[in-house]
Amino acid sequence: MDDLTSTTGALGLAAVVVALAALTVGIVALVRLRRLRADQQLVLGDTGSADVVAHAAGLSREFRALHAYVEDMATHLTGRLDTVETRLDGAIAHTSLVRYDAYNEMSGRQSTTLALLDDRRNGIVISTIHHRDTARMYVKRVVDGAGELQLSPEEDEAIRLALSTELPAPSTPES
């Protein structure tokens, strides 16, 4: 104990404290350096020899190329979508079927009228009139919701019912 109270002992004790502090700082620095190297390897990959600036420049070039590709594909898909939407406007979207007894014979409503219309309200109505021993079929064109020829009340009803049905709204992709 007498050695610690002397100047030499106090200096030796101070040197041990400084050495322990330096050792602690060195260990902390070593752990941080290993973490930094692991993070650098995660960013740079296994190349190891590339520097961060060259790697960042390469990533920037690749990102610009990917962005240009995505822009080209978006333009291409937009054009195709416009074509598809135009074609779908002419597809049958509204239908209805009306059954009735054309001759009031109590024959079980065997006569039918079928309306097939697109979103522009164009299409056809097909009527089949059944009698005891005969059946007739009539097809009439519909333009803008009205028949080109005189329509029967059942044909008007079929068109009205077809156009009264609402189409479901198009679904949107969820993000």
Could you explain the architecture of this structure?
Helices cover 53% and strands 19% of the residues. The protein has a five-stranded antiparallel β-sheet with strand order 1-2-3-4-5, with helices on one face. The chain folds into two domains: 8-86, no CATH class; 94-164, no CATH class. The model has no long low-confidence stretch (mean pLDDT 85). It has 175 residues and is of the alpha+beta class.
The main sheet comes to:
5 strands, antiparallel
Q: Report how far the terminal alpha carbons are from each other.
A: 74 Å
The number of E-state strands comes to: 5
Q: Give the neighbour order of strands across the main sheet.
A: 1-2-3-4-5
Quaternary structure annotation: single chain
Principal-axes geometry comes out as rod-shaped
List the secondary-structure elements in sequence, H or E. Answer: HHHEEEEEH
Number of helices: 4
List the SSEs and their pairings.
Elements lengths: L1 H4 L1 H38 L7 H38 L4 E7 L10 E7 L5 E8 L4 E9 L2 E2 L5 H12 L11
Antiparallel strand pairs: 1-2, 2-3, 3-4, 4-5
What would the keywords be for this entry?
single chain; 175 residues; alpha+beta; five-stranded antiparallel β-sheet; rod-shaped
Short description:
With 175 residues, the protein is α+β, with helices and mostly antiparallel strands.
